[in-house]
Structures are given as C-alpha cells and as structure tokens.
Amino acid sequence: MLSSVLSFTPEIAATVTEYCTNNSNDVSNDMKEVWNWTCGQFDDADKMSSPLQGATMKFLAEHHQPDRILEIGCYTGYSALAWYESTTSTQAEIITLEIDPKMIAASRRTFDKYDLNDRVRLIEGPAQESIEKLTGTFDIIFVDANKDGYEGYVKSILDKKLLAPLGFIICDNIFARGMTISTDANPILPDKVRPYWTECGKALRRFNTFCKNDPRIDTVLLPVFDGLTLIKWKLAKV
After folding, report:
1. CA 201 from centroid of its chain's CA atoms
2. How does pLDDT run across 80-95, given as a tens digit for each residue?
3. Buried-most residue among 69, 202, 203, 208 (CB within 10 A)?
4. Are strands 228-233 and 217-222 parallel, antiparallel or unpaired?
5. Which of 72, 24, 77 has its CA nearest to residue 51?
6. Which CA distances in Å does 161 have to 70, 124, 167, 181?
7. 222: which strand partners?
8. pTM of the predicted protein model
C-alpha cells in the first residue's frame, strides 16, 4: 500500500517543492517582497511560511470566506498579508498576536508598508494572556508560535468557544523538523538548532495526544510542510 508520505531525499524534496510551487497559484508581488526581505534580515527565516504554504492559506481563506481571523504568532507579517489579500470580499478582521519585540517591529513595518492597518490588529504580549481577553468567534485560527504553548492556546480557544461553529484551526510545524516523530527522523538537522526542535517535538507530541483525545473536536494531522494539524468542532449527532 502506498504510504501517505513519499520517501524523498532532501534534494528531491526541494525539487518537488519547486514543482508544486510552479504549478500552484502564485503569491502576490507584495508577499514575494516580504518573503525575500525576511530571508535577508533574519537568521531564523525558515520559521516563516513558504510561498507554497502562503498560496495554500490564501486558497483556504478565499474558499471559506471568513469574517474574522486570529493568528497566534505573527513573525514578520507574511501570513497576515496572505489573510488580508484573500479576504477583500468579506473585509475580514484579522487579529494577530506577537510577543517578540523584534518581530513586532518587523510586522508593523509590513503592515505600514502594505497598508494593512485598516483590518489587521496586532496585539502585543504573551499569547495566552491575549487569548483570555478575546471575545466573539473566529472563522479561521492559525497557530504558529512557541510550540510548548500550542496545547494551552487551543484548549483556551475551545473552552472560550472562540472558534466559530463552522470554523477551523490550522496548527503549523507539528513535525518540529521531524523531532515530533523521532529524534532520529532528521539526520541533517543542524546541531545548533537540534536541541530547540527536540524540545518542541516533546511538546508537540503532548499536543497531538490532547487533540486526539479531546471529545469536542475532530482533528487530522497532515504530512505537508512541517506537519499541519487541522481542527474543527465535532458535528453534533442527529
């Protein structure tokens, strides 16, 4: 039986990514500018969503037509820009949470440069505290922040019913560069970041167990990008 994950070498994976990107909807010139600027400014720019992932996010938002979007972790504003561009028809409100002063400054640069401030609101500070203060519901929630916080963030979102009845949550980097699966899963992971991603993997294994066992939700973990978990409310049985 064919596995859900093809056994690519890193070189072939890069070729496949390029092929998929070239045969998918392109991202805007503004998104390309932000992506290139981020890659040139930050040593950890690999934490940013890829162009293919940006195109995926836009595809999902254009299809779902959300009125409100919440993202936990803003980085340099690339994903917020994707949400903004893909919700012109609904004029969705986009709330993004960030704690790192360096990334707050970078995000505000993006929002100012591309005129996003009419619909994007950046809330500074610890995400867990910010979530506790939020009200209403969100149609799309994107979680891409500190991995040891995922379980607490999603639990609070569910407890406070911040997720709209037909909304969905996207959680990024669930594989933690492979460390969630096994500490031997990624032999080419650089030594300088291996301890960080190993700890992320431990936290995300706990998060995956939480999602699987919470009776309120349906969840699917997809072997795409660095592992993507989708979460929705479980449909009530008739």
Report:
1. 16
2. 999 999 999 999 999 9
3. 69
4. antiparallel
5. 24
6. 13, 22, 11, 30
7. 228
8. 0.94
